[in-house]
Write a structure and sequence with these properties.
- The chain has three domains: 3-111, Tetrapyrrole methylase, N-terminal domain (Cobalt-precorrin-4 Transmethylase, domain 1); 114-217, 2-Layer Sandwich (Methyltransferase, Cobalt-precorrin-4 Transmethylase, Domain 2), CATH 3.30.950; 229-270, no CATH class.
- It is elongated, with a radius of gyration of 28 Å.
- The protein has 275 residues and is of the alpha/beta class.
- It has helices spanning 19-27, 36-45, 64-73, 92-100, 113-119, 138-147, 164-175, 198-204, 229-241, 246-257, 261-270, and strands spanning 3-7, 30-33, 52-54, 76-79, 104-108, 128-133, 154-159, 179-184, 192-197, 213-217.
Amino acid sequence: MGTLYVVGTPIGNLEDFSARALRVLREVSLVAAEDTRKTRALLTRYDIHTPLTSYFEHNKLTKLDAILEALQRGDVAIVSEAGMPGLSDPGYELICAAIQAGFAIVPIPGPVAAITALVVSGLPTDSFSFLGFLPRKASERQRALQEVAGERRTLVLYEAPHRLAECLTDVQAALGDRPVAVARELTKLHEEIYHGTVSGAREHFAREVRGEVTLVIGGAPEASTTWDEQRVRRALKEMLDGGMDRKEAVRQVTQESGWPRREVYRMTLVLPRSE
């Protein structure tokens, strides 16, 4: 039985192709490619002549049996148009089917646009949520964004250049004017990484945009726990009217309200007391 190699390919700069990936693509008996024309050009660049078969979004289910049969005869590599297969690209179904059929799965790591953009975004990287591509329809896209409006983790998503302006408009409407990084043409000649706010990005990218785009959006801000002034006054009055010592009332309200102790104490001096 063969092995299915999940091979990462460059997302732009061809120098990001690892020596191990090149060796594996030379040694396998078949390469299943999302875009055979681009993959053939890539392999030709490195003088690799391994046979190719197409495996893309619209034939990925009908090609499963043929690729599994090829695995019975030898090793197979799967590659996407760029980046890691199976991550917002075809590959997931094949990997699952190969696992269920008992074939070994070996990852050959390569560049990933989502991670590349995240680490240069200036936004928290310790925990994030990857959304892939948002729905194309505006109503569905808005609904998807509203579902993650309360997500505290950094959000990472992909978007097509011709939908970027609409997407940013929906992001601001659903999530607010959060900090954002917009990475375009990563690792390529015209690479651009914008750092700022959603509103600023909308203005910056009002022009025509080309190239693949990755958005990194700040997570939902922590809800404010600071009481408003009316609540502070009401709590103080209830405590003092109940016979609590002024010092203790100030201590408790300061601790719970988020207000400075001096301001809380000042309020106790002007509060009307119950008869």
